[in-house]
Amino acid sequence: MLNHKFLELKTRRYLKRNTVHRANLAYRSASTAGIIFSTEDLRKHKLVKNFKHQLEEDGKTVNVLTYLPKGHQNFEFMFDFFTIKELNFWGIFNSEAVLKFVEQPFDYLFYLDQEGSPLIRNIMAMSKAKCRIANYEEENAKFCEMMVQAPGNSYQGLLEDMYKYTKKLT
């Protein structure tokens, strides 16, 4: 799709021009967190809900944004979402949910997919988050301040390790 080429160009431009001071904050002093992920199935949705609840129990204000691929269900309509239809031909999002999300100066932004998405990497590049955390993938390196590799490629293990290692930041 041609707009993916434009999306890649926009993503590189956002990476270059984004002047947000990035840093690994101490977990106890962080007050806000963002979560972004791709909708897949009900099990993943429930794990993300539990992860969000865990952060909230620690006193964090949490905003969640999910990418809803074609043919997937938006479980419970609990989270803000966007679709491919909200990306124009030039690789620019016209989604109010995306535009609002990237402007949030989160202390932490958790990208909770095991396999990277060019759409979400674009959002990560635009984000004003101080510390962006994702699954360990070579392609994610330029978008993140911290990456975690889950044992055995387990999604639940990825969330547990993200939480465990983020809590250790001092």
List the helices and strands and how they pair.
Blueprint: H1 2-17, E1 32-38, H2 42-57, E2 61-67, E3 80-82, H3 96-102, E4 108-111, H4 118-126, E5 131-135, E6 146-148, H5 155-167
Parallel strand pairs: 1-2, 1-4, 2-3, 4-5, 5-6
Helix pairs in contact: 1-4, 2-5
Quick overview of this protein structure:
This protein has one domain (2-167): Rossmann fold. With 170 residues, the protein is α/β, with parallel strands linked by helices.
Structural features, described:
There is one protein chain. The model has no long low-confidence stretch (mean pLDDT 92). This protein has helices at residues 2-17, 42-57, 96-102, 118-126, 155-167; strands at residues 32-38, 61-67, 80-82, 108-111, 131-135, 146-148. α1 (2-17) runs parallel beside α4 and α2 (42-57) packs parallel to α5. The protein has a single domain (2-167), classed as Rossmann fold (3-Layer(aba) Sandwich). The longest helix has 16 residues, at 2-17. α4 links the parallel β4 and β5 (131-135). The protein is built from five helices and six strands; from the N terminus they run αβαββαβαββα. Strands 3-2-1-4-5-6 form a six-stranded parallel beta sheet, sandwiched between helices.
CATH topology: Rossmann fold
pLDDT below 50 for ≥5 consecutive residues: which ranges? Answer: none
The assigned CATH architecture is 3-Layer(aba) Sandwich
End-to-end C-alpha gap: 43 Å
Number of domains: 1
Put simply, the count of helices is: 5
How would a crystallographer describe the biggest sheet? 6 strands, parallel
Q: What percent of the residues sit in helical stretches (DSSP H or I)?
A: 25-40%
CATH hierarchy class name: Alpha Beta
The number of strands is 6
Strand content: 15-25%
Backbone CA Rg: 15 Å
Order of helices and strands: HEHEEHEHEEH
